[in-house]
Amino acid sequence: MRCKGKKNNGERCTRDAKANSKYCWQHQPDVEDVGGQRPKFETVYEMQKLINEYFDSCFIQEETEEGEVYQKQIRPFTVTGLAYSLGMTRQGLLDYQAKSEEFSDTITRAKTRIEMYAEEQLFRNQGKTNGVQFNLKNNFNWKDKQEIEHDVNNISSVEIELVDDEG
Predict the structure, then answer these.
(1) Same domain? 69 vs 110
(2) What is the DSSP string of 64-103?
(3) Are 34 and 49 in a shared domain?
(4) 78-132 pLDDT, tens per residue?
(5) Domain enclosing residue 93, as ranges
C-alpha cells in the first residue's frame, strides 16, 4: 500500500506504507508536525532496550576478596539521566510520555523505578534527605502534608462573649 503522506512540495508520497499503517516511516500519523525532530523510536521494544542500557550503565561489576562478583551502583537513577540516554531532554521525555499512548507505559515504568530509588534514599541517608525530597517533590509530585485536627464539639476552653450593638 502506498503512503498517504505528502512531500514538501505537496505531492503525495511514493513510498510504501509500514505494516498496519497508512503511512511510511517518514510520515507518522500519530505525531503532529509542529517542527523539530520527529521521535526516534519506531517501537516500544527499541526504547525499552535503551532504558535497560541506561539502568545497567549505573552499575559496575566488582569482586570481593573472596572472589564473589557483585554489582556496585556508581551513579544514581535520575529522570534527566534517563532522558539523556534516550537522546532527549528531560522535558522532551515528559512530553513524549504525555502524547504517546504507545510509549507512555514504558516511560512510566522507568520513571517509577527512578522514584523507587529516590524514595529508598530517604531511609538510607537519614538526616541528609533535602536533595532527595526536592527530587521527589519536583519530579514525582510528592507534597509536604500537615494535618491539623479541629474539634468543633469541644469549645469549653474558649470563652465567647456576645455583645449587642447597644452596649
Answers:
(1) yes
(2) -TTS-EEEEE-S---HHHHHHHTTS-HHHHHHHHHH-HHH
(3) no
(4) 999 999 999 999 998 988 898 888 899 999 999 999 999 988 887 777 767 777 7
(5) 44-140
Q: Which of 89, 95, 109 has the alpha carbon at shortest distance from 44? A: 109
Residues 75 and 112 in one domain: yes
Angle of helix 101-124 relative to helix 44-57, nearest 10 degrees, comes to 20
Task: Convert the pLDDT of each residue in 65-88 to its tens digit.
Answer: 999 999 999 999 999 999 999 999
Q: Which three cell numbers stand for residue 20?
A: 498496519
Whether 14 is in a domain gets the answer: yes
Tell me how many degrees the CA angle 18-21-23 measures, rounded to the nearest 5: 70
